[in-house]
Amino acid sequence: MTVEREIDRQKSDFISIASHQLRTPLSAMRWFLDLLLEGDAGPLKPTQKEYLSDLSTSVVRMVRLVGSLLDISRIEAGRVKPVPEHVDARAFVEAAVKELSPLIRQRQLAFTQAVAKDVATFYADPNLAGQAFSNIIGNAVKYTPEGGSIALDVFVEGGETVFRVKDTGLGIPEGQQYRVFAKFFRGENVAALETVGTGLGLYFVKTIIELSGGRVWFTSKENKGTTFNIALPNAPKALPVSEDGGTLAP
Fold it and tell me: Taking the CA of residue 227 as centre, how many other CA atoms within 13 Å lie in the half-sphere pointing to its CB?
């Protein structure tokens, strides 16, 4: 077990170093490509513009991958510290949905949302929780075929605010569901349909939701769809009490 932990640590260190080294040249490439596509270096022929546009798309994907790898390395090194606060749940949902609305319309998906009357605020880091929530909805949009549907329900249950995202998408093969939150995992059906992807999104979601004192779980059936649930506390969680009556450090 000690050897395995050391190997895992070395892999994490390599990913962190490689990501840092890639970030600067990729940013420069993106900047120069934007200049070329905007015509700042002179007019482009249609074919040249098409090739540069394809290259720019690939560079943007690489920049996002590097960003994801850096986020993961910071979390695993303990350098990401949630700063929880009371968050307006309704405004939180509206912001995430607004960001993805163009893609929802583009894919001709039926999108519904229902926020229960007693939903008010939850207690978490709004930036980290926002990234996790956007990842969940983004996956539902990405892996639901055109003409499908996505339903978002937000409700209060047991001192938590629950965000439930149900889609009619590809689903997750039953034999692979235990690996869903593992780093670099992608379902075979998804990988066959779309080769682009990091397999880091759900690992990131689980890690930062649990850092925020919340929970995440799902149910899924291949070719029928998936339902993801994120539950975040409505108030700061009390520290455990020691035998002498004092509170214990987390």
Answer: 9
Q: Can you tell me the distance from the alpha carbon of 126 to that of 119, in angstroms, rounded to the nearest whole number? A: 16
| Residues 143-182: tens digit of each pLDDT | 898 989 999 999 999 999 999 999 999 899 899 899 999 8
In angstroms, the CA 186 to CA 181 distance is 10
Q: Is 221 in contact with 189 (CB distance < 8 Å)?
A: no
Whether the per-residue pLDDT at 199 is higher than 80: the answer is: no
What type of residue is 208?
I
Within a 13 Å sphere around the CA of 142, how many CA atoms are in the beta-carbon half? Answer: 14
Tell me how far apart the alpha carbons of residues 44 and 50 are, in angstroms, rounded to a whole number: 9
Extract the tokens encoding 207: 């890690």
* Residue 141 · residue 104 · CB < 8 Å: yes
pLDDT mean across residues, the chain: 83
Quote the CA–CA distance of 109 and 111 in Å, as a whole number. Answer: 6
The 10s digit of each residue's pLDDT in 4-25 is: 777 666 666 666 676 667 777 8
Going from the C-alpha of 159 to that of each of 164, 219, 247, the distances in angstroms are: 16, 22, 21
* Domains, the chain: 2-76 (1.10.287.130), 85-233 (3.30.565.10)
State phi, psi for 148 to the nearest 5 degrees. Answer: -80, -170
Half-sphere exposure of 117 (CA within 13 A, CB side): 0
Side chain identity, residue 60:
V
The per-residue b/e assignment along 12-21, b for 16 or more CB within 10 angstroms, e otherwise, is beebbeebee
